[in-house]
Amino acid sequence: MMASSYNAKDEDGNITVSGPGGGALRSKKPENTAFKQQRLPAWQPILTAGTVLPAFFGIGLFFIPIGIGLYVTSNNIKELEIDYTGSDMSSPCFNCSQSFSWNSTKPCTCTIPFHLDQPYDSNVFMYYGLSNFYQNHRRYVKSRDDSQLNGDSGSLMKPSKECEPYAYFEKKPIAPCGAIANSMFNDTLELFYNNPNGTKVKIPLTSTGIAWWTDKHVKFRNPGGSNPNFTAVFQGTAKPVNWRRPVYELDSDPENNGFINEDFIVWMRTAALPTFRKLYRIIQKKDDLLPTLPRGSYTLEVVYNYPVRSFEGRKRMILSTISWMGGKNPFLGIAYITVGSVCFFLGVILLIIHHKYGNRSNSADISS
Amino acid sequence: MLRRLNRLLGGDERRVDSRTIYVGRQPGSTNEAFIPPKFCDNRIVSSKYTVWNFLPKNLFEQFRRIANFYFLIIFLVQVIVDTPTSPVTSGLPLFFVITVTAIKQGYEDWLRHKADYEVNKYRVTVLEDGRRISKESEKIKVGDVVEVVEDETFPCDLILLQSSRDDGTCFVTTASLDGESNHKTHYTVPDIEKDLEMLCATIECEQPQPDLYKFVGRMQIYRNNQESVVRSLGPENLLLKGATLKNTKKICGVAVYTGMETKMALNYQGKSQKRSAVEKSINAFLLVYLCILLSKALVCTTLKYVWQSKPGQDEPWYNEKTPREKETNLYLKMFTDFLSFMVLFNFIIPVSMYVTVEMQKFLGSLFITWDKDFFDPEIKEGALVNTSDLNEELGQVEYVFTDKTGTLTQNNMEFIECCIDGFQYTYRDTASELDGFCVTDGPVSKLPQKASTEREELFLRALCLCHTVQVKEPTEQDQGQGGGLLDQVDGLGVDGEVLQPPQEEKGFIASSPDEIALVKGAVRYGFTFLGLENKVMKILNRNKDVEMYELLHVLNFDPVRRRMSVIVRSRSGDTLLFCKGADASIFPRVRQEEVERIRMHVDRNAKEGYRTLCVAYKYLSAEEYAQADAGLREARLALQDREEKLMAVYNQVETGMSLIGATAVEDRLQEEAAETMESLQGAGIKIWVLTGDKMETAKSTCYACRLFQRNTELLELTVRTLEDGRMRREARLHELLIEYHKKAVQDVPPGVTRSWCSDSQDYGFIIDGASLSMVLNCSHESNSSLYKNLFLQICQNCTAVLCCRMAPLQKAQIVKMVKNSKGSPITLSIGDGANDVSMILEAHVGIGIKGKEGRQAVRNSDYAIPKLKHLKKLLLAHGHLYYVRIAHLVQYFFYKNLCFILPQFLYQFFCGYSQQPLYDAAYLTMYNICFTSMPILAYSLLEQHICIDVLLENATLYRAIAKNAMLRWGPFIKWTLQGVFHGLVFFFGVRYLFSNPALQNNGQVFGNWSYGTIVFTVLVFTVTLKLALDTRHWTWLNHFVIWGSLAFYVVFSFFWGGIIWPFLSQQRLCSVFAKMLSSLSVWLVIILLILLSLLPEILLVVFRNPFAPRPRQLSEDSLLHSSRQQQLSHHCPTST
């Protein structure tokens, strides 16, 4: 394979000390060590067609199956995307999107029917997706106070300057402060299965397990330690300007309330690209025999709270199953197949070249 | 400014060309108008800083470097403007660099302070009003009389007034000044009274100047009510600060130059900086990258404002600006945005590159000093590196200018033969004849003949008298036994009777080894020089009688006259002038009828490569002598143009002599001189021999060194060929130049570079000093540049060029001319003597040989080696490797920062041009400092893409890197494209992966910091593995550093994300890395992207192989070949 040879160097030590009585002079004479004489034993690999050829074939043979596997896996993942922005007249959410105002107290609800052609077998993951939403804008990304979110009581009452202009509201510190928290996604999505018999069955959605474990247990902590009385803990703070409820009323479960509310934590992990999806709910598989979501018609009920029209954004609801490689993404499979085939192809070309010219160049070398 | 103004306003009287020093009591007459002139005190200040000004001054010095200044600006922008990365990211590396440099410089300065303090506070004895006062050295004023005892160094430049030795001499060594450790004799000013207290004199001397060997002055001694006496002062009267008194119990001298005006201090200034070609390339690349940086920032700023002009983009409801941001003026905002982008992308020009390059150069140069092959057991010294800035230049040399004597030859002179009156005398060790005299057949007559004894003895006397040789002083341990022995040894028997026959190896000291050879040669023929004492030279003649000659004058040797003379008066009262010198300078000055007989011998000897000298003499009549004596004295007293005046007198005296004979001295070639020259020529290096020697000698040396081969056609442009025709010299010069040009340049088949093809005719070019000056200083302006061009073109097409009869300045002139010629080739000068210093300083790389002619060349050189043969390894192995290493280092640095910053630039298109950094601040800071710096440093120190033995064996490999091959625009573009490709692969690979950010099997999604971390991980692995692919020489250090830094990156990332860091305002990377590795997709994408990035690299390497075997393969083949024969190459690959 790799043309190489380990060269055991002759560590000849100090052999050439200039005659007897050289003791005093030895200090002036350079030391005869392998390092100082640049003769450290070394491995000297040479890349030649002969050595690289098998590697190319190997990579090709290794990558193509992986790529096919990835591609098949990705294709087997079932995914359904519903855009409920309501920007065109035909959309059920058109009215809600048009009549949006921050001050309205009455929530606007819209229902979108959809049909599943295939049953979803394993756990189904429900995402919300936003487009043209720059969660990775610099001003936005830095507009948070991690020590406040980590339960630091000092930062709770005195949010960092980075949170500006979402740090104080009417002289009261905002908790949680910053633009990210302030713009938390607050549409409520609910799924109903339309039984063929005409009844609507609400599909149970799990709202835990959607955030990173470390975020929930290490990075995010409620202030006041284990004090269950959130009202007292958050006394003297204001809710984010655009929120309808204070942070301690996000959920009834104390383990999923306040800063450690998972919806909140998921939102706080800023997305990499302006079009992104975030995990919203998980539909757990209950029965081994029945599919989690059987084939049939469904209704998506949206409490439309989140305005995106002003920046020409889109909102989507995504239902997806998950494989070992994550969500549906054909890229990896295609990339692996491509790179694998290119390697293989190159291998073939190299082989031909090697056979045709290799001998000739060898003989040329010998004659020279 | 002020000083110049002062000068303009008539401060001229202060700028006189000489200074006047008053010694002792002032002459009463001038007392009223006398203002003591101000001279600087004797404090030596070699330190640059004081405690107070260290910080500002050092910072100022450091920020004068353009790179440091650039980083400072970036840092300040980060502090002032709201920028995406914290000031720490660029501040920390800058702070590190600045601090390390400041500490290093501070330490060096502290050492200088300590040394200064020691020198300045040294107690010296000063004679003041007849008392001996102990003073601190720094308090010595000009005009003070200072007493110095044996083994002390002189505290300032002194005029020697009094010595404890009877003959008014003292001995000094100047080891600390020019490294010459032999004893030099200095003389007291004559006619100084014993009682220095009574001395009253003025000294007029030139203003301080750095030349150690020049001094002119005049001393006017006032005696009580007598007319004043004037004495001339020369370098022989001047004791330099820094020299040490030897063999003399004590001396008194008057201070003439003090403190910073002493010759030592004036010589203290560092040499002018030489910049290497690599550095120029770096600067050019830097400019390109600066342009890339600026255009990137400009593009982003423009696009940002285009993007923001769409409604709802600039300030959506979820991301409002602070009131302050809203109020800011639009143009100001644009400007700060531009600066912010600059800051974001500034890592493309890394601070660390400068640190790494400096480190590489410094550490790399240690390998030269460590190399045991450069160790010479004779002088027990290895190579010396005076500057590490030029290591890589050693791999780029195109022209080697070498001195002949002492460089190509050993400068180990041996007397071979002499000819007296046309009869040849060859000395044989085993000769049985009386006195070791052996007469062989002269070519003149077939009969064994001998010159008359009288002539013989005259000739030998001339050899014994006409020199400046001293008898060697006793060694240290003998001195303890008191003055009696001392006197005995140095005079070899004061009472004139010589008891024991002179030892076999009598020690002689002289400035030139020829003189010693001649004196030793005379010893063989029975005339022994016993020494010079009180201006009396003693010779032991064949009859074991001591002859005494009073030495009246020495007409010193100089390279222009090329001869020296002595005027002596024998016991019988005859005044004789003996002169020896080069044939060309003697023949015109002797009676012509004597010339022919000797010229034949001289020419024959010169052809055999011997150094020949002719000896002449002349009787001076009383009037003649009186006239010469007066002329010499007058000239010696002159303050201005003393040299010229002396020369005129010398020339006047040295006429009408009669030739006695000639000598031939052999100068053996250096060990392996021929092999070295041959391999250098094989390396495509053109070798020019610049020598002061005469043409025939130099030519034979060139043949011996195989610079000229038997089939080399020699093109001669010398005085002889110029005078061939009946034409005027200028016309002949023109004709010859055109003819040679036609031969050597025009008739060469186009497209074929001369030295490459062996079958065509080789040309060698010979020019002498006189012709050269005609070429260079042609009377017609228009022709001058034409001749110069023709000359250069001819020379460039010759395999070797020999320039003989060169004055030192002409050597430098030639080097300069070649240096500035088309293509500005890299030049190297190598020499061993003081006459080579000018060309050593002029060439790109100056190499000194630690030879016999003192240490001047070594002091002024960039590298010093003990022998000529070491040049081969220095250039072919060290130079080649250093160049490859540093070129790779530079290219790699630019490459790795390009593909570091490109994803960050591309990310701007996806984050609304908001200057959001892709990587975490810790990664931004550490990328160049920790994650990727060590492997390249190790590479640039240890890489041997071809192993040393092969490099030495195949000189042709040197041509592969000629003309800065690895740092030209071609390779640079290749590397840049590679960087761009890698950057694109990293960014878009991850971009498409993130089209669905749910990458785990639990459905959870990744955010922007995960994105950046994945890109960064791929980046770190790819650039490190790319270096691994380029590494051809894997020592354990390479393994350790490459795998170590990858491991360090992983460990660091775990650590950095594993803890909530209290000092960080944002926990961006909290558990990001661990989470990332828990996703299989991420693993797969990392592997894929690394492989995809390296694929073209591997392909390039492979594709290059089958079509054209690279030097490497070639070397392997030759190695295989040699290993079969010699079985010595253990550490080179033997399999393909």
TrEMBL record, chain A:
Residues 1-28 are annotated as: Disordered. It is a multi-pass membrane protein. Its main location: membrane. The keyword Cell membrane applies. One of its GO terms (biological process) is phospholipid translocation. One of its GO terms (cellular component) is apical plasma membrane. It comes from the Eukaryota. The chain crosses the membrane at residues 46-72, 331-353. Belongs to the CDC50/LEM3 family. This is Cell cycle control protein. It comes from Monopterus albus.
From TrEMBL, chain B:
The active site is at D403. The chain crosses the membrane at residues 63-81, 284-307, 338-357, 972-994, 1009-1028, 1040-1061, 1081-1103. It is found in: Cell membrane; Early endosome; Endoplasmic reticulum membrane; Membrane. Its cofactor is Mg(2+). Residues 858-1109 form the P-type ATPase C-terminal domain. Signal peptide: none annotated. GO terms for molecular function: ATP binding; ATP hydrolysis activity; magnesium ion binding; phosphatidylserine floppase activity. It comes from the Eukaryota. Belongs to the cation transport ATPase (P-type) (TC 3.A.3) family. Type IV subfamily. This is Phospholipid-transporting ATPase. The lineage of its organism: Eukaryota, Metazoa, Chordata, Craniata, Vertebrata.
